[in-house]
Amino acid sequence: MIHSLFLINASGDIFLEKHWKSVVSRSVCDYFFEAQERASEPENVPPVIPTPHHYLISVLRHRIYFVAVIQSEVPPLFVIEFLHRVVDTFQDYFGVCTEAAIKDNVVVVYELLEEMLDNGFPLATESNILKELIKPPTILRTMVNTITGSTNVGEQLPTGQLSVVPWRRTGVKYTNNEAYFDVVEEIDAIIDKSGSTITAEIQGVIDACVKLTGMPDLTLSFMNPRLLDDVSFHPCVRFKRWEAERILSFIPPDGNFRLLSYHVSSQNLVAIPVYVKHNITFREGSSQGRFDLTLGPKQTMGKSVEAVLVSSQLPRGVLNANLNPSQGTYTFDPVTKMLTWDVGKINPQKLPSLKGSMSLQAGASKPDENPTINIQLKIQQMAISGLKVNRLDMYGEKYKPFKGIKYMTKAGKFQVRT
Amino acid sequence: MTAMQRLLQLPVTAVNMVKTVQSQVQGQEEDKSPVLTPDGVHQAWYSALQPDELRHLRSGAPVTISVSGMNQSIESQEWLRVSTARSTRFQSDATIALQEQGGSTKRIPLLVCELTGLIPVSLTGKEAESCFNWVTDTFGVSGKKAVILIKWVKILHDDLKEMLDSNKDSLKLEAMKRIVAMIARGKNASDLFPAVVKNVACKNIEVKKLVYVYLVRYAEEQQDLALLSISTFQRGLKDPNQLIRASALRVLSSIRVTIIVPIMMLAIKEAASDMSPYVRKTAAHAIPKLYSLDPEQKDQLIEVIEKLLADKTTLVAGSVVMAFEEVCPERIELIHKNYRKLCNLLIDVEEWGQVVIINMLTRYARTQFLNPNMNESLLEEGSDKTFYGSDEDEDEEEEEKEKKAEAPMAKRKPYVMDPDHRLLLRNTKPLLQSRNAAVVMAVAQLYFHLAPKAEIGVIAKALVRLLRSHSEVQYVVLQNVATMSIKRRGMFEPYLKSFYIRSTDPTQIKILKLEVLTNLANETNISTILREFQTYIKSMDKDFVAATIQAIGRCATNIGEVRDTCLNGLVQLLSNRDELVVAESVVVIKKLLQMQPEKHSDIIKHMAKLTDNIQVPMARASILWLIGEYCEHVPKIAPDVLRKMAKSFTNEEDIVKLQIINLAAKLYLTNSKQTKLLTQYVLNLAKYDQNYDIRDRARFIRQLIVPTEKSGALSKYAKKLFLALKPAPVLESPFKDRDHFQLGSLSHLLNAKAGGYQELPDWPEAAPDPSVRNVEVFTLLERVTTLTSVPEWTKCSSREKRKEKKVEKPFYSDSEGESGPTESADSESDSASGSESGSGLEESGSGSESEESEEGSESEEEEEEEKDKKKKKKELKKPVQESESEQSSEEEVRKHERKNKQRKSDSESESDEEEESESESSQSESEDSESEAEVKKKKKVAEPKPPSKPVKKECKKEKKEMSLLDLDDFEPAPSPQATPLNTFLSSSLVNDLEGLSLSDAVLSPATISPSSTLKSYELLHRITGEGLSVEYCFSRQPFPPDGNMVAVQMQFTNNATSDAKNLHMEDVKLQSGMRVKEFTEIELLPAGETATAVMGIDFCDSTQAANFQLCTHTRKFFVSIQPPVGELMRPVFLTENEFKKEQGQLMGMNEISEKLTLDANCRNEHSIVQRVITAANLSRVPCGSDKECRFAGRTVTSSSLVLATVASREEGAAQLTVNCEKMVIGTMLVKDILLALTQ
């Protein structure tokens, strides 16, 4: 399956390579570099590149290309999904997945890659098992290791792979038993010129951080499970139970994991939290354009809209923008033509606005494209779909765990066309 | 440049010193490692580079790299490659420096720093820091930006060697870490091989691991030395710890050294029969490694694969199928025996294994089953339309092909899905919910290639979900969606909006989404799609705009209604400022005009004007072609255009020139008066063109059109040749017909066959013998007994267990209950296709639940079928035993029976197999409740006492008669007559379980279970219960000790390795008024066995849970039982009049009605009755009207009457009315029944 893996940074240097079968020369990456040059944007490099003897399948995460070398037929998603899993694992281990972090921990990285694939076929990809095999570096452990010369590799032989619950390591012990669940929903929407919604859907996830002793068996039930349109589960969730009773029953992995991701598609269920009044015009013949933007809260259910960030790619003809924000700060990058306005919190009494003029290239005709406005925002303590967790029960262990649940709404791909 | 100058000023002596040091090194190394010398190529990179470096230093020239003097080592090639690829960067930044560092030490490091990461070794710690500082100071390279790699020629490796030889693990570890870091950066560390390989037996786990990493990387290059390590692994293979055995095998098989092939083969064979499933998994992984090393071993490896395929653990399944795919994908017959097992295990296999298995099974299914779409009408409508009459609306070509292939088959009998085919579809469906995109995609392609058309829809939602994943995932998924949306447009139509494009999408995603949108466009949605397209045209991404214009063109050709609108829109685009946009529009307009040119001469005129401005060759060529083609519509303009073009001829691109010639020729033919000279001029110019195509064309055309005395017969036809009516081009999707590649595969993505791609076979014309998938049971049994540990499958597959149960239930109810046709088909037609056609009829008749019944009805005759069922139970869910093979090998069967006896399972019969099966079946038949299926199953697993034979025989007869009766009398409405009997029955379930008395047997046939499937609930999961799993169901039996109690039947399964003792309950916590009658203590439940018990709970007509503790001799588990409201009642028998009277008294507050729309599968009376009875323990009240179904019951504790009515109207609308004194119960019941009817 996967022959080799090359890690390539933004400037085109191969800074790590790993081979699971015979060594494949680095020169195979030249095909990748060629494709990279052809692509206008970094994300436009095709994920699958055929070369005379190999196929290169790559993903771009954190400005690093993970390029897998394949020799024969394999489902491309298999490789892509695996590479993303590798990145997730790195992130889990090092906090961030940057070139520097990988270089600093090159040995751990290598050990991880060795365990995750055997002869190119995935072996152990569950983070719980990996953590049993190779302990993640922490500052304390790094210091202790340098002094005592001890190691990151687990002293005991791993048992996780053999257990009937392959995603959970055995013998977990905590003094504080806690289980936290974050319900995070993102609104993906396209709003057209007149302010009506073209599409809107909610993409939600429940991320869990479970630190419980022993082998707890949890059930999580919702007040309104019918809301969920389409769900995908962590392998630990008992599918039948969900089908029959709409209850999530599972033995959780230890630590952080994504329990569930779901989707609410019915458009009338999706509340659009903000509205945008915009007036972006260019006059024919003049080198000036008007820019006028006002934001206001729409359906927020009484919660305040925070961390609002507006960004827009202005037409190429715009040389500069001279704007006046009623609150927050704005920046305009004359090279990329990217306008960003960090609004902060929306005060319903005094709506934030950004007004002013744009100067265009003298003599150039008026640009005929209109910029789209991308909005990011956050609403705390509310899931916009109205999803509510009913209760969390624990079976199988005697102690009383501390349970916590948090709701949050964010804007996902929230675009306003002008 | 300053840096370079300073560098070059370094004293020559320093250089010489380095040189001497190096030569010493070489000398020493050659002494030390004899392995290195024989092949004469020294692997160390520095020796390869040295001449170059020195030359640069001496010559004083800027750093340019030459190959001369380099040997052929990998490093030198790489050096060359990098230097040529990035020569500018290299020259400016890469610098080779030499410095005396730290006067106190005598080391002379050669420091090499550059930006690109070329030179092998990096130092860590203090040394690196000081070097780094020196380099930055000296060269003024800004610190962070420069990645500084330092080559510490000899000293470093000496260091490492010293460290590796030391006694301290910490030093060894440090050295190994540095070496691994070198490998990670792609630097050569092969010269350290002897030093490293010594540590293979090191006690420290991390050192050992890193040594393994090193060994696997370099063993191939240093085969002789690698042999030194083999004995360590051989020892490891014998280790008592399974993990050590596994890791030894893993490394041993990863060392690519041909000499050890026999050792590897031996090790794999041994590991394949290891006790530990983990080791067996490793063995499966090792198979492809050995195969790639030595393909000669194929035959032996196939043997091992065959053996491992029979393995029943989820751990091994994925790996061995992967090995199968790599080594012998053509040996599809190896899968037969394991097919059902793989299907059943699938859900518990790890996700990567799932992908491989699903892909393999797709291929398998294509060779073994019939095309489910060959005559869909029968499946979809259940009508008796003829095959030919039905498929007019289908995809013509595809159908055409299929028709040819399948027609003879279809004539003979209607299509019936093989139960195994159904099994595969059913077991893969839940995986659409996987978090792993690859798994979802694999299931999606399986459904696309294998499922009946009506069922494919389910995958759309899951695929659309994947579109929110990473952009790479989106890319692949969209490619596949694009292909699917051509074949099955309807599937994605509801999700149209999910393919709308956002300005932030990468271009390649945008274009794919556009493709899908175009494929989905039809008359109804075209207006919304076109409105979307309008916004896209204003995008800043010009490639995307061009693609949008193409898409509009395709929509316009496909959908006649909007052609004019599209054309107008495109004409407007002609005045766009962006030339690319205009050019693209021209090309598309040209294609559109070709369809109806006469209407649009003004557009052609408009375009003629554009020739002055548009420079894009393709667009110019298109305009010229248009004018030429329709010169009759624009007689005045055409010659003028030609005049202008003749002027600029020499400066045009080739395609434009060709079109100018074309235009000239056409004009000459139609309007020779005006254009004769122009044509001559153009042809003359073309005659001397550089391009031979153009010269050829000119010569050809001159001969053709200009009449000379020599010109042949053709010139007469010149006008016909040039001005023939040309068919309009068809704008086709690039994704058309891509589905001949298996979807989701690399080959599909690239639209080219990738290496190792396994062709997806066409459906067979006639199904191969399905019996090849039947499995002989005794072999499996043997395995179980030989393994000391509890086999994994019993532990792992509780999920399937539940599923399996559900699957089997309807089977029984089918054969005994209302769906008579099945029974008759089964028993009457004992032809080879008997059971199949039976279940097929079923399927067409009664909707969804019948699908499940196929599972059971595999074998050919009724008796055999019974036997099969029994076997299946016995083995929990081992695949069905093939009856023929059984008969042929009766001895083996006996052996198997004996074994059964030893294991205290049911071994009722000593003599005849036939008899045993009969008795077995009859015995179960004789149970007097609707829960037969459930009870029987449990019994199969652990029935304590063998009943006497004669009784059984009688039962059998009884049963047969009854089943015939069923068909005639009870078929239309089985439940009302059936259920009331329950109330009269005095025998309890407990009695049943203790053995069959004659009275039971007599009574039992009278009970006809409604087809209700008794739902079983999980009380204790096997993981929580440490191996003990408990399930319960409401048996709907009267509970004799107390009539006010609801009988709850519990099934205990001991999955642990040790026996469970003293199973009883304690510490019952109840709401006030509730009472519990405990079940009798189970004293011993041996490992792997199952037992059943019944308890009674008086719920006081509430749905409050009963909480109690379930105790074994060691542990206590808190459990709770909560009844669905439908179980809190018992059926009563009322006549129609009584019902009406009672209903009249329960009006007003006591009546709750609810409107509903019936589920598509449950519009007939039969299924309504069935669903209601499943949801609530009610009995049916006879009723004159067939539009109404009435049900009656009484609550268990207070005996309040519960009446339910379902009145159906047209088109699935219906009204549900429940009358009950207890309003709470009524409300809840309405909800439950509503749910049952609408799902």
Tell me, rounded to a whole number, the average pLDDT of chain A.
Answer: 85
| Poorly predicted runs of 5 or more residues of chain B | 1-126, 138-155, 377-412, 778-891, 899-1012
Tertiary shape of chain B:
flat
Stretches with pLDDT under 50, minimum 5 residues of chain A: none
Number of helices of chain A: 7
Determine the N-to-C terminus distance of chain A. 47 Å
Please count the beta strands of chain A (DSSP E, at least 2 residues each): 23
The secondary structure category of chain B is alpha+beta
Largest sheet of chain A: 9 strands, mixed
What is the gist of this entry?
The complex is a heterodimer of chains A (418) and B (1239). Chain A has 418 residues and is α+β, with helices and mostly antiparallel strands.
Question: What topology does this entry show?
Answer:
The complex is a heterodimer of chains A (418) and B (1239).
Chain A: E1 2-8, E2 14-19, H1 29-38, E3 48-50, E4 55-61, E5 64-70, H2 76-94, H3 99-104, H4 106-116, E6 117-118, E7 121-122, H5 127-133, H6 139-148, E8 178-191, E9 197-211, E10 217-222, E11 230-233, H7 239-245, E12 247-250, E13 255-264, E14 274-282, E15 288-297, E16 306-313, E17 318-325, E18 329-333, E19 338-344, E20 353-360, E21 372-380, E22 389-395, E23 402-417
Parallel strand pairs in A: 8-23
Antiparallel strand pairs in A: 1-2, 1-5, 3-4, 4-5, 6-7, 8-9, 9-13, 10-12, 10-22, 11-13, 14-15, 15-20, 16-19, 16-21, 17-20, 18-19, 21-23
Chain B: H1 2-8, H2 12-32, H3 45-59, H4 74-85, H5 87-93, E1 95-98, E2 110-113, H6 125-139, H7 153-165, H8 169-184, H9 193-197, H10 205-218, H11 223-237, H12 242-254, H13 261-272, H14 277-293, H15 298-309, H16 314-327, H17 339-345, H18 351-368, H19 376-381, H20 387-390, H21 396-412, H22 419-428, H23 437-450, H24 458-466, H25 471-487, H26 489-492, H27 507-520, H28 526-537, H29 542-558, H30 563-573, H31 579-593, H32 601-610, H33 617-629, H34 637-648, H35 654-670, H36 672-687, H37 692-705, H38 718-722, H39 746-750, H40 777-786, H41 792-796, H42 798-816, H43 820-828, H44 834-845, H45 849-856, H46 862-874, H47 883-888, H48 890-902, H49 913-925, H50 932-941, H51 949-970, H52 974-984, H53 989-994, H54 998-1006, E3 1016-1020, E4 1028-1034, E5 1046-1054, E6 1060-1069, E7 1075-1077, E8 1082-1085, E9 1090-1098, E10 1106-1111, E11 1116-1121, E12 1129-1131, H55 1136-1145, E13 1151-1157, H56 1165-1175, E14 1179-1181, E15 1188-1195, E16 1201-1208, E17 1213-1220, H57 1223-1238
Antiparallel strand pairs in B: 1-2, 3-4, 4-5, 5-9, 6-8, 6-10, 7-9, 10-11, 12-15, 13-17, 14-15, 15-16, 16-17
Helix pairs in contact in B: 2-3, 7-8, 8-10, 11-12, 12-13, 12-14, 13-14, 13-15, 14-15, 14-16, 15-16, 16-18, 17-22, 18-23, 22-45, 23-24, 25-27, 27-29, 28-29, 29-30, 29-31, 30-31, 31-33, 32-33, 33-35, 34-35, 34-36, 35-36, 35-37, 36-37, 40-48, 42-45, 42-50, 43-44, 43-51, 44-45, 46-49, 49-51, 51-54, 56-57
